[in-house]
Amino acid sequence: MRSNSSDRAQTPEALWKEEDLIGNERVRAMVLILRTSGCWWSKRKGCLMCGYNSASDSSIGLSDLLAQLKVAIGRYEDERFVKIYTSGSFLDRNEVPLEARNAVMNAFPSAKRILFESRPEFVTEEELSTLPNDRVQVALGLESSSNEILKKCIQKGFSVEDYERAASLLREKDVPVRTYLLLKPPFLTEKQAMQDTIRSIEFAAPYSESISINPLNVQKDTMVEKLWRRGDYRPPWLFSLFEVLKAGKNLTGKRVFSSPSGAGSLRGVHNCEKCDANFIEAVKRHSFSQDLKEFDDLDCECRGRWQTDLLLQGVMRTSVDVERYLADELLFD
Ligand code: SF4
Ligand SMILES: [Zn+2]
Question: For the chain, N or C: smaller number of CB within 10 Å?
Fold first, then answer.
């Protein structure tokens, strides 16, 4: 009988089905989160908001990855889009050995597109030469187009220029790029965060087929969680996400969308209990329709609180959760 840790190593961290777009075509997608030995950067310093290393296991090797892939193949129902996430870099051979990478590429014959995520340092001529470039899409987590924010607010461990090099190489090879941007890293006011993401959309658009806005979700055992617990950080408002998505649409012809995790909870992007569900539904609809009308007629009395937040943070020159400091009491989840 296998031990529990061996079972865990040979089982994907998560697997689910959803929908996505290939060009303008709405298709069924399978999302596979592989459990790996982890992101090399998270072992060194790590991004301030990243709690992914808790899902990793340094002992995981080729045989475990192949076993996880077998589980995924068993659940595959000819989805045309397959998305592979590793909580790290699919192109890092120390994390995903070449044999496992090749096995993934051969595992889903009906997939017209296979998306995976990688840090830019692994996007090289050599690695790209191992891939079926006509089927793959690479997701790059740029987060922000400001080197200062990458360094001081995220501790990303790469620069905007590293992203530019990787994205240009992918464009040269006709490999579509999906760029992830982080809405509201720590130490920025709500307004600064919106402005930074809007600037970043404008910057990333020429390199990207699509841009995914990830509002920060407070993950366990991270620096951001410490800030959040003591009231020095609040995840972004859904009002802010709306503004960013609207600006994105007006700035670029590219698909700019968001599939926020933890939305509607205290740890994720949220407004208030009364309006969260309707706002989140609108964000989901907009992901596919790209129609800004999805946001029309949506309002709530908490808009005033959002506006006060923007105003007070600006006047007080602080990124702390001003509302929380002013509140009488607050419950944590
Ligand atoms: S690069 Fe990605 S996986 Fe690695 S520490 Fe940063 S957010 Fe986490
Ligand atoms: Zn509300």
Answer: N
What are 199's two structure tokens?
């600037």
212-243, pLDDT tens digit by residue? 999 999 999 999 999 999 999 999 999 999 99
Q: Of all protein residues, whose CA lies closest to atom 2 belonging to ligand 1?
A: 88
Bin 9: left if φ > 0, else alpha if -120 < ψ < 50, else beta.
alpha
Q: Domain spanning 134-333 has what CATH number?
A: 3.30.750.200
Q: Whose CA is nearest to atom 6 of ligand 1?
A: 47
Which ligand lies nearest the alpha carbon of 33?
1
pTM above threshold 0.85: yes
Give the length of the chain: 333
Show Cβ contacts of residue 256 under 8 Å, excluding neighbours closer than 6 positions.
Answer: 201, 210, 211, 213, 245, 248, 249, 290
- Indicate the residue type of 243: E
Domain ranges of the chain: 1-117, 134-333
Neighbouring residues of the ion ligand 2, judged by CB less than 5 Å: 271-272, 274-275, 300, 302
User: With the C-alpha atoms ordered 237, 238, 244, 247, is the resulting torsion angle positive or negative?
Assistant: negative
To the nearest whole percent, how much of the chain has pLDDT over 90? 89
Phi, psi of 29 (to 5 degrees): -130, 145
CA of 42 to the centre of ligand 1 (A): 6
